[in-house]
Automatic annotation (TrEMBL):
<dbReference type="Pfam" id="PF13585">
    <property type="entry name" value="CHU_C"/>
</dbReference>
<protein>
    <submittedName>
        <fullName>Gliding motility-associated C-terminal domain-containing protein</fullName>
    </submittedName>
</protein>
<dbReference type="InterPro" id="IPR013783">
    <property type="entry name" value="Ig-like_fold"/>
</dbReference>
<dbReference type="InterPro" id="IPR036116">
    <property type="entry name" value="FN3_sf"/>
</dbReference>
<dbReference type="InterPro" id="IPR026341">
    <property type="entry name" value="T9SS_type_B"/>
</dbReference>
<dbReference type="InterPro" id="IPR003961">
    <property type="entry name" value="FN3_dom"/>
</dbReference>
């Protein structure tokens, strides 16, 4: 993307700006960068760079020493100026460097406050009284290593012209290879701020510069003026200024690693806008490059000027290894460094040459950004100098590993592959912890890979990373993490160099090498379901004889041992058969019929171990084992007038890129079946077929059906597979179990009509439910005889809540045609009920009518009691049986209103003693019972029952 810059004519600036040197700092821009300088402590070097106006504010620039840093912990620290570098005759860069050790990990904000900004900043009210504040945020963590923030290599020195698009790019470079992102930010500062203030605040009253002026339109005249930043490239553009003057903007450079933000820098800068009639120059740069390390880059950069002004070319970026002044080395990359010449003024057209001899030390994941700039030198005095900037990116990858070979290896299991490759050409120039990664996949398709594409191409094409080894290693034995590789399978291998941080680059992916493991043990070829039953299911298992074994070599007799596990991925293998063999082809010893298993509920997985006879001991010895192979598992999911079939198998051969067969029956899961479809299958994710009743295979007769909700349809699937190796190119056909399903209708069952047995409180006696602790409600319901609904009801679901107004929850279900339910073991009758019908297809009806039932509470207290210990009427307590009391409190007072007794016991008993255990005198007492009943309205308040009771004692009782 091309961006344009304008360089201000400083003589003209002096004529339009009147700025007090005694009050203003004349800061044009600035930022703070950091780098960790110790591997044993959390010590950082912190550098602030500020750009000063040397024409209008040299005195203020002279006096800016020291500056005060806040490190995010503790008080501000005075930091003396380390250097003052002349950028050009109008600008200097002041640097302030401090060292600080953090006490522990964390996120810290480093700030610096400089007292005054320039006077007359158009978009900052009272700018001369407002401070200039910078901040950089870093994540301090030892795990990040000697991390540094990015450095900004392009100084912010260009000015803008009215009506013309202005752009700036900081030419940020991160030596650690971290990713960078950019966003706009409101400048920071406060009125009357003192140096040393550590609190960052946005400028009060700050205005977007695009809102200032009358004709606020973009350069093309197609819309309003804009201020934007490209989040990826960092191009900050104002399209376009409407009025002359000075303006301040700010933006943030974010630093990201592995998806986590680990820091950010604020650059605050000033833009000087002037009128001008000069036309800007044009510059042509090469297209973006993606090259192999060691390539010499030599590119011509050309520029022309429409007014035939003289031109001056310059360049910025990480490959030059110099700071913003264009001369000071900063040690951010390894030599050789890039060069650009000449930088002197030339007649138009002007030409410069970018030259960079790359090496393996320059390999990195992030591209290098190089910014080229051309500025014109107007022949007419008083004209603003115009500049154009354009950048291009250079991606450098490491050379391809060479001479990869593969052959079977003799490990303990005999199922390994030995890889060898040539010593890597760049090993000496790469970090010691650079790794060579080994990738493997089944199959040998020769896929082309682009070294300039994003990482992850190997994984996207089916390769898995086996391991990584040191960059100086030249061999590797792959035994699948000690599990052994599959025999009879063709493998493809590739290797690639992976660089560590800070570069994180990689090499070209090697050429593939393909290899087959010799087949010395059997291969399972069939695990097919013959019949589907829960207790007498049958699966037939077949396998090949081991082709690499000579039956006459003196190691016989031999033995196959068959093991079985439950499930597609089961690991609970148990031996189910041992078959002795001499490996003679006339004997049918490579088949086993597994009977008496539950093929309705389970898939099964099989493994065969092959044993030979040790000539020395005469004992059977295990040679090897086949890879595990499962039966095909079919699932049928009912749909609306359709059945969705999906199937899967966990086998060592591939069932992909074949035509699988779907069979249907209306008789049962064991047929007879009719072939209704041949399904092309590309990957395991497409093992599926949607049956809507069609029969697309005419070979055995066409038998389409109308998918009915009243019918059950049964299916089995025949998969077709093949091993990858040429030795076993036979097609492998295996059947799934049979499975049945019924389509569903679009309608639901009708909601039932519910009734609950009633409770008539007026007919109850004081002894009703006396001493009863559990209760039951009887529910009955009927199905409506009319209405457009599904009549195939298979069960009813009962929903209940003990309180009205609450959501009902499912408590039970009963199978149709039962139309009653007894809800037992309740603590009271109170509760609400609904019933919902469920169809054979699993659809639930709307709720029935809601029926609620309440309790009949009862409480009666007596008027007299005689606590004389004779066992009769000694206790004041409820008469007969109180009903459905949830909580209660009894309070007794004498006739003068003095409380003598209080208790929250549900029994509501009083023995004539006060709460201290002493007898109270005989006489009349008043009582109050505060009682909360168990009611349908669970939120009902407690009720108050009041009365009097006479306590009778013998004369002299206390």
């Amino acid at each position: 993307m091309k961006t344009y810059f304008l360089t201000f004519l400083w003589v003209f600036l002096l004529g339009i700006l009147a700025i007090s040197e005694t009050q203003a700092t004349h800061l044009r821009a600035g930022e703070i960068t950091t780098r960790r300088i110790s591997s044993t402590s959390l010590t950082y070097e912190v550098t602030m760079t500020t750009y000063h106006d040397e024409i209008g504010g040299r005195t203020a620039s002279d006096q800016q020493d020291p500056s005060y840093f806040c490190f995010g912990i503790g008080n501000a620290v005075a930091v003396p100026r380390r250097s003052r570098t002349i950028i050009n005759r109008a600008t200097t860069a002041n640097t302030y460097v401090a060292t600080f050790t953090y006490p522990g990990p964390g996120t810290y904000r480093i700030t610096c406050t400089i007292t005054n900004r320039n006077e007359n900043v158009r978009n900052i009210p009272s700018s001369i009284q407002t401070s200039f504040q910078l901040q950089t945020t870093i994540v301090v963590n030892a795990a990040l290593g000697l991390n540094s923030t990015p450095v900004l290599l392009n100084p912010p020195l260009d000015s803008a012209r009215i009506g013309q698009k202005w752009c700036h790019n900081p030419a940020a470079f991160d030596a650690d290879g971290d990713s960078l992102a950019y966003r706009l930010y409101v400048p920071s500062g406060r009125i009357a701020d003192e140096q040393g203030n550590c609190t960052l605040r946005n400028v009060a009253g700050y205005s977007d510069p695009t809102l200032i002026g009358v004709n606020r339109i973009n350069e093309a005249g197609t819309g309003p003026a804009t201020l934007t930043v490209n989040a990826i490239t960092g191009d900050v553009c104002w399209d376009a200024p409407a009025e002359q003057g000075q303006y301040n903007i700010a933006f943030i450079v974010e630093e990201w690693r592995d998806g986590v933000k680990i820091g950010e820098i604020i650059r605050d800068m000033q833009i000087i806008v002037t009128p001008s009639t000069n036309r800007r120059p044009a510059i042509v740069v090469p297209p973006d490059l993606c090259i192999e390390a060691g390539t010499l880059i030599q590119q011509a950069i050309t520029a022309t000027d429409p007014d035939n002004n003289r031109l001056e070319l310059s360049a910025y970026g990480g490959p030059f290894n110099v700071g913003p002044d264009g001369t000071t080395p900063i040690n951010i990359i390894s030599p050789e460094y890039a060069t650009f010449a000449p930088k002197t003024a030339q007649n138009s057209p002007a030409t410069g040459t970018f030259r960079w001899q790359t090496s393996c030390a320059h390999v990195r994941a992030e591209p290098y950004d190089v910014v080229f700039r051309v500025i014109d030198l107007p022949r007419t005095a008083g004209q603003t100098q115009l500049a154009t900037l354009e950048s291009f990116r250079i991606k450098i990858y490491a050379p391809q590993p060479q001479n990869l070979t593969a052959r079977p290896a003799a490990d303990a299991a005999g199922r390994a592959i030995l890889l060898n490759w040539a010593a890597y050409s760049c090993a000496a120039q790469l970090p010691d912890n650079t790794r060579m990664a080994i990738y493997r996949k089944i199959g040998c398709e020769d896929t082309p890979f682009d070294p300039c594409s994003d990482p992850g191409q190997l994984e996207a094409n089916g390769y898995v990373r086996v391991d990584t080894v040191g960059i100086n290693q030249t061999s590797y034995t792959d035994n699948n993490n000690n599990q052994g590789l599959q025999r009879g399978v063709q493998y493809s291998y590739r290797i690639i160099v992976l660089l560590p941080r800070p570069n994180n680059g990689q090499s070209v992916i090697s050429q593939q090498v393909c290899v087959n493991l010799p087949q010395q043990v059997p291969l399972i070829t069939h695990v097919t379901v013959d019949s589907t039953f829960d207790t007498r299911g049958v699966i037939t298992v077949r396998w090949t004889r081991p082709p690499g074994i000579n039956p006459n070599d003196g190691t016989g007799p031999f033995q196959y041992r068959l093991f079985r596990a439950t499930g597609l991925t089961g690991t609970d293998f148990t031996q189910i058969a041992a078959i002795n063999t001499t490996l003679q082809s006339t004997v049918a010893d490579t088949v086993f019929i597994d009977r008496g298993i539950n093929t309705v509920a389970n898939a099964y997985r099989y493994r065969i171990e092959f044993y030979y006879t040790d000539p020395g001991t005469g004992q059977l010895q295990r040679l090897d084992a086949t890879d595990n192979a499962s039966s095909v598992r079919l699932t049928a999911t009912p749909g609306v007038r359709r059945v969705q079939l999906t199937w899967q198998a966990n086998v060592p051969w591939s069932n992909d890129n074949k035509q699988h067969r779907v069979y249907r029956s209306k008789t049962g899961p064991n047929g007879p079946f009719n072939l209704v479809a041949v399904v092309p299958v590309t990957t395991a994710n497409t093992y599926a077929y949607l049956d809507q009743g069609a029969d697309t295979f005419a070979g055995d007769g066409v038998q389409p059906v109308m998918m009915s909700v009243d019918s059950s349809y049964c299916y089995r699937v025949e998969t077709v597979g093949q091993y990858a190796a040429p030795l076993t190119t036979i097609l492998l056909n295996n059947f799934s179990q049979g499975v049945c399903a019924s389509p569903i209708d679009t309608t639901r069952p009708c909601p039932p009509q519910l009734a609950v047995d009633t409770l008539n409180c007026s007919t109850l006696t004081p002894t009703s439910f006396c001493n009863q602790t559990t209760f039951a409600n009887n529910l009955t319901w009927q199905n409506p005889t009319t209405g457009d609904c599904d009549r195939n009801v298979v069960k009813y679901r009962i929903y209940y809540s003990p309180c009205e107004g609450q959501d009902l929850v499912l408590i039970d279900s009963v199978s149709a045609p039962q139309l009653t339910y007894r809800h037992q073991n309740l603590t009271s009758f109170a509760g609400c009920y609904e019933v919902r019908a469920v169809s054979r297809s699993g659809r639930e009806s709307a709720a029935s009518n809601r029926v609620c039932k309440d309790n009949c509470p009862y409480l009666m207290m007596p008027n007299v009691f005689t606590p004389n210990g004779d066992g009769r009427n000694d206790i004041f307590q409820p008469a007969q049986c109180p009903r459905f009391i949830e909580s209660a409190e009894l309070t007794v007072v004498n006739r003068w209103g003095v409380k003598v007794y209080q208790s929250s016991d549900l029994s509501l008993q009083w023995n004539g003693k006060n709460n201290q255990g002493k007898d109270v005198p005989g006489g009349v007492y008043l009582y109050q019972v505060t009682v909360k009943y168990k009611r349908l309205n669970c939120a009902a308040p407690a009720e108050i029952v009041k009365g009097w009771v006479e306590l009778l004692r013998e004369s002299g009782a206390n």
